[in-house]
Each structure stands twice: as C-alpha cells, then as structure tokens.
Amino acid sequence: MAEEKQAASDNGFDIREELKKLPASPGVYLMHGPRDEVIYVGKAVNLKNRVRQYFQSPRGKTAKILKMISLIRRFEYIVVDSELEALVLENNLIKEYRPKYNTLLKDDKTYPYIKVSVDEAYPRIYMTRRVKKDKARYFGPYTSGLAVKETIDLLHKLFRVRTCSRNLPRDIGKERPCLYYHIGQCDAPCAGAISQFDYRMQVEKALEFLQGKYEPVKKYLTRQMEEASENMEFEKAIEYRDLLKAIAEIATRQKVTSTDTDDRDIIGVYSEKQEAVAQVFFIRDGRLIGRESFHLEVDEKDALPEIVLSFVKQFYTGTPYIPKEIWLQTEIEGGDLIEEWLSKVRGQRVYLRYPKKGQKEKLVEMAVQNAKLVLEKESDRMKREELRTIGAFGELRDLLGLPELHRIEAYDISNTNGFESVGSMVVYQDGSPKRSDYRKFRIRSVTGPNDYASMKEVLTRRFAHGLRDREEGARQNSFTRFPDLILMDGGKGQVGIAESVLSELEIDICVCGMVKDDRHRTRGLYFRGQELPIDPHSEAFRLITRIQDETHRFAIEYHKSLRGKAGVHSVLDDIRGIGTVRRRALMKHFKGIEELKAATVEEIASLPEMDGASARNVYDFFHGEKC
Asked: What digits encode the pLDDT tens for the residues 214-252?
C-alpha cells in the first residue's frame, strides 16, 4: 500500500494552498481541531474532490458538519491503493482517535466463544475471546461468560472431554490421571484409558450437542436415571436428573428462530436526539444464542442509514467473528464495498440483507423495537443521573449565587495521633468524580495534629504549583485547572484558612464550608461570612455528602498505604536511638507531638522501653539539638 502523509508546517497551515495539493486518489483524511486533536476521520474514493467539498458552499451541510468545519485548523491524509483499503484504514483510525464529530460506538466489548480444538489428536473444549483462522470449531459469540462456563462444565460431565493442555499423544503414560478422571469427568486419554477413536466419538457427540441436537443425550440420561432409580441407586438418579435440568436451561437460552442452519446477525437501530442504540441478535445454526445492545453518540440530524452504516463498520472492525448474513432495517451507502470488506475478513462470502416482508422483516423489526426499549430505559436512567450530577451542581450554584459551577475541589487531612499527616485533594467535574485529577500530599512542615496548619500547607502547595505551571506554560493538568469552588470539611475556621492562602497568592476562588450540628452532621453551608441553610433531602445536599465521604476515603486510603509500606515514617524515625519499638511506645503514651515536645527528659525516660540516653536524644531533638 502506497502512503503519503501531509503534515502541518512550523509556520502555520494554509488550507487553501494545501487543498490544491490534494491527489485524486482513494484515501483517508483526518481533520485537526484548535488543539491539534483529531476531530473527524473520513474516507474518499477521490481525496481531492471529497476534502474540497468541506470548504465550499455551506448549502446542504448539517449544523454538525458546519460546526466541525469551523473548528478545522489543518488536515492530513493517507493515500491508499483502493477504496477497500480506505474503508479498513478509516475504521482503524476512528477506533484509535475516537473523533468528536464521527458517529461513535461507545461500547468496546469482546465476547466469549466455545472453542473445540478438533485439529488436535485429542481435542479440548474451552472458552476463548479470540477467534483465530485455524482448523478449530468455534461456537458463539455468547453474551454471558457465565453461561459459557456452565455449558463447558456440562459438556465435561456429559462427554468426559479432557481439560488439560498436555501434548497428546506424545505425553500419554508420562503422568497419572488427574482428579477429573477420578470424579468421572474425563476418560483419561493421558493415561491411555480410552482409544483415540472412542475419544473422538465423544467429541463428535459434544459437537452435535453444541449445534443444538439435545434429544439423543436427553433420551440417554432419562433412561439412565430410570434404571438407577429402579436399582435403588438414588444418588446416581439425582445426578442424571440434575444433568437433564442443566440441558433444559441451555435449550431455553437457545430459542429456534428459523428452519435453516445459517449463521447471521440481525441488527436493529433506533435513534432519538443525540443518542442511538443498536440491538444485535446473534443467530448461530438457526438458533438465537444471545443478544446485545450498543450505544452510539450521534447528531440528531443524522439520517438512519448513516447511523446504521457507522455501526456496521465499527462493530465488525472489533468483533472476531463475522456471520454469513447480516440483516439490516435499511439499505446503506456503499453496501457492495462493505460486503467485499467483510467477505475478505471472514474468508468466505458475506451478504447484507434488507428484509422487506414476512417473518424476516418481523425479526428485524423486533430488533428495532428492542433497541427502542433499551434507549428509553437508558434515557430514564440518564435523566436520573443528570439530576444527580449536573442537576445537583445547578442547585448548589443557585444556592450560593455563583455565575457558573463546573469544577469543585475538596480537601481533607488524615493522621495518626499527629505523628504522620497526609492531605487529599478530590475533584468533581459537573457532578461526577474526576479521579484522574485527584492528588495526595504528604505534610512536610507541620508536626503534631494541627489540621489547620496542615491544610494551609496543602492549599499553598497546590495553588502555588498551579500558578508556577501556568507561568511556565505547562500543559493543562490537575494543578493548572483551578476550581470554581473549594469545599472545606468545616465551618468558619477551615474557610478562613483557605481564604488566607488564596489571598496571599492573589487568587480569586470562592470557598464554602460545611457547618456541623452536635452530632457532626452537616446542617448548613458557611459562605461569604454567613450560614446558609440547605435542604437535607435536596440533590445538592446529597452531592455534598458524597464529596465529603469521597474526600475522607481518599485521605484515609493514602494514610493506610503509608502505614502499610513503612509502618508510618514519622519525625521520630529521624531521632538517633529510636527504633520501631520505642517509636510505638512514645506514640502510645503521648497523645501527639506537641505533648511529647512538652515532656521532660525524666517523663520520657519513665517509659519501660526507654533509657536515659534515648530519652535525652528525644528531648534534644525537639529543643534545639537535632540528633
């Protein structure tokens, strides 16, 4: 494949000049936005004609495309040899960059398959998530990994196929049979207990079972159960009964949908505003073995064929198995090319079908209706989630009278009797935790359980760091992004500390504190010198509680990790003659560093673990002479 990549020059990108250089060849183009991010990926039979269209008359272009065009700062392209290569490359680049203005498949799922390694002398049956182009038999995809494991367990019990990965027949007789042989779930080919011919016959029965031919096995088990019952062997009868129940459950999952045995996917898409759902029915050997729904980000003006086309391209780029037929509710642009691409990937002919009448149309319509139900259910959930997040931010913004509220930072201090203090910074963006921006601080300048001083150090370090990064032109990070509101887990005192730090650094950020009642429950907010009541049943109150709990959790988790790593390194570790035993004794006896500082040499030496020299070292450490 011949490739040519157009890059931006250091002196700027002249779109008009670069349009003149576009080749009249098939290829893929990438549109870059203001931050040089990829905002759109497309393919073209003729790059020159296709890319130029974006910068010509706006007539006929949707609002989405016009908005995207306004953001383009440069483009690049890759020339390929055919439209099919362009299609494959386009799909891969969309998956890599996930551009904002492409219709995107949100879900990135891998499905489990049942693999029967018929290419081995003594085949195995196991679960896999990768379908290879080998001689093995694959069954699936299944939408439930648990269902696959249950089916494989049943196959081992019914047909006694091996589970080990020994190289047979090379290793026959080298080791004793494993536990599965002794519990009757393997015929031990590894020990030569069954011939290769008889073993392959068992595997053939397992293959028939996987194809949905349950009746021979059910008749056999029923006969065995009745014989065991007549012979008063009730435990065996119960085992056979349980196996019959397991077969019935698997048969229920795999409902017959047609009389033929072709593999096909039936796809139904339903869209509303900026959301769409695709429902896929997986038909294997004429049976419905599962279904799955997929969410897409779309523009409300996107046409249905365009959405269906985008889904088909993205879904089959990621799935390891492609069936013989794909049924769709509407014809898509370039269907012949899609068939050619899918056939090449599958290694056999693939057909796109558009059923228009009869039972086939009803099946497609059923997929569409299921997609609609999923979207409606998801919309209700999203509305609840929006009320819980963005809605709660809006309530809090209105309560505090802020012009806007998108980012909140909350802080907490955690320590053990003042001997080791840490600080945590938790960030909420538009109502949801933004964990990538969380930060931890190990207190450096404060000794003892002084939460105010520790908080001052944390806030000073955080915002000084942010100012420094901004001045140096650093890339955006959790420090350069300043919050719209700082939330303190305390009232007037904590707010005062934060406001003093911001004043010293000449930063204008609102600070809000939580006022507690006698039971240490939040009863109101302290903001701009006054207490504001807050409804404990409001979404804003619930949000504040979540932020408060998350800040505590993050601080305590960090503190525990330090204790776990080094038994907590404290200032006492820097004193000569103070090891683990003496440090623990001092921490247990004295309530904090300040109380230890105030103690005399005699009081320190009175502890059983201490002697005169070590007591003197501790006293001198805190009173001028560092030991």
From this structure: 888 888 888 888 888 888 888 888 888 888 887 777 665
Report yes or no: 95 and 105 within 8 Å, Cβ to Cβ.
Answer: no
Confidence category of residue 4, pLDDT binned at 50, 70, 90: very low
Distances (CA, A) of 96 to 88, 90, 93, 200, 456: 13, 10, 5, 44, 43
The counts of H helices and E strands in the chain are 20, 21
Residues 446, 454: Cα–Cα separation, whole Å: 6
Interior angle at CA 36, CA 32 and CA 40, nearest 5: 25
Give the list of residues 6+ apart from residue 188 with CB closer than 8 angstroms, or none.
162, 177, 181, 194
Read out DSSP for 141-187? --S-HHHHHHHHHHHHHHH--------TTTTTTSS---HHHHTTS--
- Kindly state whether residue 3 falls inside one of the protein's structural domains: no
Tell me: the pLDDT tens digits for 500-515?
Answer: 999 999 999 999 998 8
CB 118 within 8 A of CB 136: yes
Is residue 2 scored above 70 in pLDDT?
A: no
**Residue 345 burial by Cβ neighbours in a 10 Å radius (0-12, 13-18, 19+):** middle
State the pairing for strand pair 287-297/255-256.
antiparallel
pLDDT surpasses 50 at 7: no
Query: Which residues, at least 6 apart from 122, have a Cβ–Cβ distance to it below 8 Å?
Result: 162, 168, 169, 189, 196, 199
Which of the 8 DSSP states describes residue 5? Answer: B
Give the containing element (helix H, strand E) for 294.
strand 287-297
Same structural domain, 416 and 515: yes
- Give the percent of the chain with pLDDT over 90: 27
Total count of domains within the chain: 5
Q: What is the CATH number of the domain that holds 614?
A: 1.10.150.20
For every residue of 34-75, DSSP letters joined together read TTS-EEEEEEESSHHHHHHHHTS--TT--HHHHHHHHH--EE
To the nearest whole number, what is the mean pLDDT of the chain?
Answer: 84
**Domain limits for position 274:** 264-383
CA 394 – CA 404 distance, rounded (Å):
8
CA separation for the pair 131, 163 (Å, rounded)? 19
Identify the residue with better confidence: 26 or 448: 26
Selection from 589, 615, 617, 590 nearest residue 604 by Cα? 615
Contact predicate 496/488, CB 8 Å: no
* Tokens describing residue 279: 């429902």
Q: How far is CA 392 from the centre of its chain?
A: 24
> For residues 335 and 313, what is the distance between their CA atoms, to the nearest angstrom?
11
Asked if residue 447 and residue 557 are part of one domain, the reply reads yes
Residue 206 shares a structural domain with residue 127: yes
Please check whether residues 289 and 308 belong to one and the same domain: yes
49-58 long-range contacts (CB < 8 A, ≥24 apart) are 49/24, 51/19, 51/22, 51/75, 51/77, 52/19, 52/22, 55/15, 55/19
**What pLDDT is attached to residue 555?**
83
Overall pTM surpassing 0.90 (yes/no): no
